[in-house]
Design goal:
alpha/beta, eight-stranded parallel β-barrel, four-stranded antiparallel beta sheet, 18% strand, globular
């Protein structure tokens, strides 16, 4: 990969201070700080209200929403290991109509300063477009995150994110149904092609990108000689994914200067979050760390502020994309 000079905050529309030490503007939206809860780890907010201070974080990406309810995979769905966690939830959710009626109204009513992105899943392009259109008018929904790691059942099961033609059609269809920000969540399995895929998503109407989704993996119970989770393989998350997410973020930020990025994968400390900002992200997702320790998001925010104070950084947006690559 040819390494270009990193983009500066002046080139980036998301690197705008809004007058608070950790505040950022991303996709036309003001966030009180860059920390957002990752999809699948925080439900729709109401489920974690007693354990995580939702007024302390910048935002939340909801649990996946599909047209019809999904039961998900049988237990055991989650298992921890030394490097993090492996899961195969199966995108379980109560379905579009129940989410609209019972879940989406809660967050803006109780935590109006916390940004809400609805994670969308589907088995076809029409599925994604239908969910986006149905939710677009809901109060308190700030944008959408498209999970393109889903299989396109009409095209033989190939993941949307691995098929650039299908991805372009999917993002275009979603964009035609909303003017709100759309972030496309890409898989780390794309490797070096993640840059080309990211370009396709943005050219097709995506506001920004979430980098990255979980990494496929396997953890074995040596006593039973079987996989530790019932589905067999699953999505790997936690500290082991940090270097993968950072590299993907850096590569994409170089190729698409000015495009908002959510850095996701392996964040458990303020230092991890700062690394994502240096690599070019303007928001940082926290998932597995919050499952292990519900106070982790607040601690990460506090550590980010302490880092900024210690470095003499008055505005965190000034460091976005300023990683100095070896010559």
């Amino acid at each position: 990969m040819t390494v270009a000079a990193p983009h500066t905050p002046a080139q980036s529309p998301m690197a705008v201070s809004i007058g608070t030490p950790l505040g950022v503007r991303v996709g036309g939206l003001d966030f009180r700080n860059p920390v957002v809860l990752a999809s699948g780890t925080a439900g729709f907010g109401i489920e974690i209200d007693e354990v995580i201070d939702l007024d302390a974080i910048g935002g939340i990406s909801t649990k996946a929403v599909s047209i019809a309810p999904r039961k998900g995979n049988p237990a055991l769905r989650v298992s921890e290991f030394a490097g993090g966690m492996i899961n195969a939830i199966g995108l379980a959710n109560p379905g579009l109509e129940v989410v609209k009626r019972d879940y989406l109204p809660w967050l803006p009513r109780h935590h109006p300063g916390t940004r809400v992105f609805v994670n969308v899943v589907g088995n076809s392009i029409d599925d994604f477009a239908t969910v986006v259109e149905a939710i677009d008018g809901e109060q308190g929904v700030d944008g959408f995150e498209l999970n393109v790691s889903c299989p396109n059942v009409k095209a033989g099961g190939l993941e949307f994110g691995a098929d650039q033609q299908a991805l372009a059609a999917l993002v275009s269809a979603a964009r035609a149904r909303t003017t709100r920000p759309i972030f496309v969540k890409l898989s780390p399995t794309l490797g070096t092609t993640i840059v080309d895929t990211a370009k396709v998503a943005v050219d097709s109407g995506a506001t920004g990108l979430t980098l990255v989704n979980t990494m496929p993996g396997l953890v074995i119970d040596t006593h039973r000689r079987k996989p530790k989770i019932s589905f067999g393989s699953g999505g790997l998350s936690g500290p082991a994914v940090l270097p993968i997410g950072l590299l993907a973020t850096w590569r994409v930020s170089l190729a698409l200067p000015g495009v908002p990025l959510v850095g996701l994968g392996g964040v458990s400390t303020g230092d991890d979050a700062i690394q994502y900002l240096l690599a070019g992200a303007s928001l940082v997702g926290v998932g597995t760390a919050a499952l292990r320790d519900p106070r982790a998001p607040e601690r990460i925010i506090r550590q980010m502020r302490q880092w900024a104070d210690g470095q003499g950084v008055r505005d965190l947006t000034s460091i976005i994309g300023t990683l100095e690559w070896p010559q």
